[in-house]
Specification:
single chain, 371 residues, alpha/beta, Aspartate Aminotransferase, domain 2, Aspartate Aminotransferase, domain 1, 7-stranded mixed sheet, 3-stranded antiparallel sheet, 14 helices, 14% strand, binds pyridoxal-5'-phosphate
């Protein structure tokens, strides 16, 4: 029996052709395909600027740089996320401060975020967990009142909307990842989208060593001169990756349709059973990077599913419980009770566009037997 993972990429012949064309073109990196991919993503989510980088973690790091986060600064972040959402603050020498999540959705709890604001707080990072948008209007109101920036970790939520507004335009900057399990893939890849030209300029500087121009711009201008004005990194994406990304973006509407179709089947079959899906907020159109349920005896269920060839996953160990954070920041149990309670019960079920109806039915039947 073949294994059913919780997520995986979908690559077809168009994608392969696009990559081969990029390989035969003049630019393997920093070429026109970067502009093309950035345009396809920023237009999809209605943002003015898109800055492609080598992965979602680099995009988060770049966002922290663009906001001038440094030693002495605090950034509020929920723990129900991948560690990179908090690590990016540490990369810049700042301190992540964990706040709790709403138990029904596992999205950042705005009241808990506000309660953890100090005079050192500079920003709030909201994570659009599983693929539904946070309560961004409420977060905006809090951020405005305290003079804070808002960053969306939208790595789960490309294609989601809130009250008709797409993820990508709900915070000051929104970060996407193009890892193979995400909605569209470039192998490894990431992007920050923003409406703010000043932030976009700093993001571009940061991905290219803090140097004021890139090689293609100099080439076109016939000028050798460049200067480094900030300490940046080489976080550039290749044109090979961007070509794949642009090709994948054309399939995104279909990918989203299939993910929502799968979610609707799960919802219907789990109604009134011991398998409890997370709540979807009113006004939210979910992008379903993950389909997360809560159940009693999660570890036992996980094991039985695995024996049946179904590789579910747990998203996530709350970040403040990782040994590194316990040791470095002294965090531990009791800091974010709702996230900690959810952690014992959550399981991410198979959710990817190529999941067949047959396999979907098998997953549901097996789960209802063992839950
Ligand atoms: C995938 C992911 C990231 C990191 O993205 P990479 O491209 O793997 O570096 C960050 N935050 C969240 C919530 C993610 O799911």
């Amino acid at each position: 029996m073949s294994i059913i993972p919780y997520g995986r990429q979908y690559i077809d012949d168009d994608d392969v052709r696009a990559v081969v064309e990029a390989l035969r073109s003049d630019y393997l990196t920093t070429g026109p395909r970067i502009d093309g991919f950035e345009t396809s993503v920023r237009e999809f989510c209605g943002a003015a600027h898109g800055v492609a980088v080598m992965n979602g973690t680099a995009a988060l790091h770049a966002a922290m740089f663009a906001l001038n986060i440094g030693p002495g600064d605090e950034v509020i972040v929920p723990p129900m996320t991948f560690a990179a959402s908090a690590n990016c603050v540490l990369y810049q020498g700042g301190a992540p401060v964990f706040c709790d999540v709403d138990p029904a959705t596992l999205l950042i709890d705005p009241a808990s975020a506000e309660a953890r604001i100090t005079e050192r707080t500079k920003a709030i990072i909201g994570v659009d967990y599983a693929g539904q948008p946070c309560d961004w209007p409420r977060l905006r109101e809090i951020a405005d009142r305290h003079g804070l920036a808002l960053v969306a970790d939208g790595c789960h939520a490309l294609g989601a909307t809130l009250d008709g507004r797409p993820v990508g335009g709900l915070a000051d900057m929104t970060v996407f990842s193009f890892h193979p399990v995400k909605h569209v893939t470039t192998g490894e890849g990431g992007m920050v989208v923003t409406d703010d030209a000043g932030l976009a300029a700093r993001l571009r500087l940061f991905r290219n060593h803090g140097i004021t121009t890139d090689a293609r711009t100099r080439d076109t201008a016939g000028a050798w001169f460049y200067e480094m004005t900030e300490l940046g990194y080489n976080y550039r994406m290749t044109d090979i990756q961007a070509a794949l990304g642009e090709s994948q973006m054309r399939k995104l509407p279909g990918f989203l349709r299939r993910r929502r179709e799968i979610a609707a089947v799960y919802d219907e079959r789990f109604a009134g059973t011991a398998v409890r899906p997370l709540k979807v907020r009113s006004g939210a159109v979910h992008a379903y990077h993950l389909y997360v349920v809560r159940l009693d005896g999660r570890d036992e269920v996980y094991r039985k599913l695995r024996e049946a060839g179904i590789h579910a996953q747990v998203h996530y160990i709350p970040v403040h419980l990782h040994p590194y954070y316990r040791e470095r920041l002294g965090t531990g149990e009791g800091l974010c009770p709702a996230a900690e309670a959810a952690y014992r019960e959550i399981l991410s079920l198979p959710m990817f566009p190529a999941l067949t109806d047959e396999n979907l039915d098998y997953v549901i039947r097996t789960l209802l037997e063992v839950a």
